[in-house]
Design goal:
By secondary structure, the chain is α/β, with parallel strands linked by helices. α16 (357-369) runs parallel beside α18. The protein is globular and about 80 Å long.
Length: 607
């Protein structure tokens, strides 16, 4: 098969099953080639190739709606829906997104990027179709890892109770980013035993069919007893109790079997769940052997750097040996947040709650209430999902939970759904919450050491990497650090390492004093009062949206003191960021040394 040979799913329908296998081979080669160069989600996409081909072969998209959970497995879908020619630009500026994006194609039914959402989306789409008197189908593709999220069960309950004709495809690869946990994972493990049943059924049917004259009659009797036999082999009570018919499990890499199953359920007017077993990383040995570390890979030209997560992992392992109260908690991200080695060293004080951030936050609050010292390591974009729990369960009780917020600020290739530019805005208004921003690994270690004796909610937010380490003054609660320049009348107040790097780069041409605002909350009001003098200028720099962020907090404090100094806030504007490169995202928001120099010179002219 040649590049661009299939531009619409309708072309698939002209092929036979053996030809579909050839399509699958091409899709795998294309995905591997592009992802190894551009970066992206590899193992999850390789595992969903046959499943995606079978869905598009049977269903009639875009009228029928395929909703992908998370979106980590949508590359084959993109290739089959007219984007093969653009696939080389995956995750690059001007190129296609790494996740489903309706603005990009009518075949993308809904935006994705966060887990456990597909079933709720499917519920709304199915109800809209019913209200409009149409017969289009809605198919939700959800992984077994995403079933650890509570939102999925709220939607399953709605689908079953309202008997919406949603087709749920459970893509069970027994492997999310981190090992699946909890009762649902154990239940699916038991269901996988029924693969033996499926294999046995096929062998018996073939053998009986060969019996002259009697074959068809015996098969009829066997079919009548199939339900009883199936119940003997496995239990589907979780789904069936919700009013959702269960079928499977089936081989997720047998296109012929998948096409047959989907064709059988296509026109059912009640909810069904199709359970398919897939191999994450299928077709690439390295991804199959280590699917977790092949889940998301960086582009071949990506810049390296020292990772804050490595600092966290080393600190937690050391601190846990010193303090028996410490517990580390993650939401299916033990590798990404740096806790993999800790989990091996202290398995009894490590908890992976699965894709359940809301539960993780309340769980940590209760751990703290019980006398433990919990640390929740989480990406900024995913902590958004637990806003209510942060406010209600942690901050009201002022429980000493430490939130280690990774991937804060702009993130680059993962695009609009993963930007960590809102955390300051939702954390700063919360009473009892302290917020810190380290500029490098050494300062991060100092902050973590500070957290051991701090007895209230604490959030430490940081991007993925840092480049250099500097010497720092000891941590003093609520106090900032003067790090460069003296006697200037323009002050660069930097929140975090990217802000500090911008200021240092600008200092070569601008007369500024640089202040490391390691505490974003509380502000160093004593220093602010000192800076708030006529003729002075204060410039705040942050990798966060302006609304509700650090700069607005500073401006509010200066106003409260009777504003005398000029104040300019550099931050991201009021809009979603879908830029695929960190540097250009910062530049688009004016978060560059060049723009800082222009601002300083403009303030000097006014002065």
């Amino acid at each position: 098969m040649e590049k661009g040979a299939i531009t619409t799913p309708q072309q698939l329908k002209r092929l036979n099953i053996s030809e579909l296998n050839g399509v699958c081979e091409y899709l795998r080669e294309r995905i591997i080639g592009v992802v190894e160069n551009n970066g992206g989600h590899l193992s999850s996409n390789l595992g969903a190739v046959e499943l995606t081909v079978a869905l598009h072969y049977v269903f009639d998209c875009p009228d029928d709606k395929i909703v992908f959970d998370v979106g980590h497995q949508a590359y084959a879908h993109k290739l089959l829906t007219g984007r093969d020619g653009d696939f080389d630009g995956l995750r690059k500026n001007g190129g296609i997104s790494g996740f489903p994006q309706p603005k990009e194609s009518e075949y993308d039914a809904f935006v994705a990027g966060h887990a456990s959402t597909s079933l709720s989306v499917a519920t709304g789409l199915a109800e809209s179709i019913r209200q409009n008197g149409k017969r289009d189908r809605v198919i939700a593709v959800i992984g077994d890892g995403a079933l650890t999220g509570g939102l999925a069960y709220e939607a399953l309950n709605a689908i079953g109770s309202e008997q919406l004709p949603v087709i749920t495809v459970l893509n069970d690869n027994e492997m999310s980013i981190s090992k699946n946990v909890g009762a649902i994972s154990k239940h699916l493990t038991r269901l996988r035993v029924s693969k033996k049943y499926t294999r046995l059924k096929g062998e018996v049917k073939r053998a009986v069919s060969a019996i002259p004259l009697l074959g068809d009659g015996v098969i009829h009797l066997l079919e009548k007893g199939k339900r009883f036999l199936k119940r003997m082999v496995l239990s589907n009570k979780i789904f069936e109790a919700m009013g959702i018919a269960y079928y499977g499990p089936f081989d997720g890499h047998d296109v012929g079997e998948l096409v047959e199953v989907f064709a059988q359920v296509k026109n059912k007017d009640k909810p069904v769940l199709i359970h398919v077993i897939t191999d994450k990383g299928r077709g690439l040995k390295s991804a199959t052997v280590d699917p977790a570390h092949s889940h998301g890979i960086s582009s071949s030209g990506a810049k390296s750097g020292k990772r804050f997560s490595d600092v966290l992992g080393a600190f937690m392992t050391d601190a846990a040996a010193r303090d028996a109260r410490i517990m580390a908690v993650t939401a299916a991200m033990s590798i990404g947040t740096g806790l993999e080695e800790y989990s091996k060293a202290f398995p009894e004080r490590f908890k992976d709650v699965g894709i359940a951030e809301e539960h993780a936050v309340t769980y940590c609050a209760a751990l703290a209430a019980g006398g433990m010292k919990p640390y929740f390591a989480v990406y900024s974009t995913f902590l958004q999902r637990a806003y209510d729990e942060l406010l209600h369960d942690v901050c009201i009780g002022a429980y000493p939970v430490t939130f280690c917020i990774d991937r804060a600020g702009v993130v680059g290739a993962d695009g609009v759904t993963h930007q960590g530019v809102f955390d300051l805005s939702y954390l700063l208004p919360m009473p009892n919450m302290t917020v810190m921003c380290p500029t490098d690994g050494a300062e991060f270690r100092d902050m973590l050491e500070f957290s051991l004796t701090y007895n209230a909610p604490l959030a430490i937010r940081y991007p993925r990497t840092y480049e250099t380490e500097r010497e720092h003054a000891p941590i003093e609660y609520g106090k900032w650090e003067r790090v460069y320049g003296c006697g200037a009348k323009t002050y660069a107040l930097c929140a975090g390492n990217r802000a500090l790097d911008i200021a240092f780069a600008a200092a070569q041409e601008a007369d500024i004093e640089i202040i490391n605002c390691r505490f974003v909350k509380p502000l160093d009001t004593e220093m602010l009062r000192e800076l708030n003098k006529s003729g002075n200028a204060v410039i705040t720099i942050e990798d966060n949206v302006a609304s509700g962020g650090f700069g607005q907090s500073v401006l509010c404090a200066l106003n409260g003191d009777g504003l005398k100094a000029r104040c300019v806030c550099l931050a991201h504007g009021d809009g979603f960021i879908d830029d695929r490169e960190i540097g250009s995202s910062l530049a688009a928001s004016g978060l560059t040394a060049e723009n800082l120099i222009r601002v300083v010179k403009s303030l000097e002219k006014r002065r």
